């Protein structure tokens, strides 16, 4: 049986706490002989101590091991000599060097978690935002132009190659996921502003072309402004939403808010041969070191990692372990004895992980 090696970068702020919690749960689900986690340094704190954000050894481990599990990176007040923030540069460098072009953000309302959307308490929200992760407006980062203190411009870049690959990712996902839009139809919604900008019209046109290869999946279109209304009013309509980088960033945070917030929202950044898994939240320095963070986003990202590895290596054991982690999280939340603080409860980071481990072992 294959055993897997995962490069683990705990990073900054709450990163180490949520990572430790996740390793506990994944090891409980899978057994220590099937998966080893190799702790690698990096991030803003590491930069302030050593002058390196992403050490060569850490990059090599991320490139050569089977997957990457990341806590979070970024600390206020840690700057490069030119005064710009180090922030989550570790993560951005990995994203670009490993070409992690599809950012997958599941939006799922777990049983027991109250949605701020009153009508949807107890279920009915289960879709995935696929954010293009390497181009779009954010590709202009650092390259925008400030003209004589009077005007600033940035450039939105949409390429055929970049759009085709993320669209294909979204359609493949819609084809195989067991998602549950209200009407049961596999569907990709293309989120853009094709009515205003040529770049978005091109994004939509390329998605349309890719759709030609997926007759079993429905295509649907939504302008980025209108989709914010629909995500609040009828979130149970959605299955997979594909969006340009900045729109994807914005609507995935909105989606997270509708199902309990960043502390329960996982994310995966996936390329053709590498993938990085991390909660959707940042390093939350305000609550770091207090055992107050919710580890659920990272634990659910860990389950996504098991599923991704399972698909790549046709490993049914791993798939089952990923399913079991999700089911254990669901049972703990549904029971309601252990609720993290950001969801209105009292349970700390470590106790949350222990409750999920117990749920895993009780089921055996
Ligand atoms: P980034 O710039 O990296 O996206 P951010 O500025 O958006 O970071 P986050 O670190 O994501 O901010 O968190 C915003 C706030 O949400 C935090 O300050 C914290 O109070 C809360 N928060 C974030 N993650 C968690 C978590 N896992 N558990 C509990 N609270 C959290
Ligand atoms: Mg943020």
From TrEMBL:
**Record-annotated Isopropylmalate dehydrogenase-like domain positions:** 5-356
EC number(s) from the headed UniProt entry:
1.1.1.85
The cofactor required is: Mg(2+); Mn(2+)
* SMART domains cross-referenced by the UniProt entry: Iso_dh (SM01329)
Q: Keywords assigned by UniProt?
A: Amino-acid biosynthesis, Branched-chain amino acid biosynthesis, Leucine biosynthesis, Magnesium, Manganese, Metal-binding, NAD, Oxidoreductase
Gene3D superfamilies attached to this UniProt entry: Isopropylmalate Dehydrogenase
Q: What is this protein called?
A: 3-isopropylmalate dehydrogenase
Organism equals: Szabonella alba
Which classification does the entry list for the species?
A: Bacteria, Pseudomonadati, Pseudomonadota, Alphaproteobacteria, Rhodobacterales
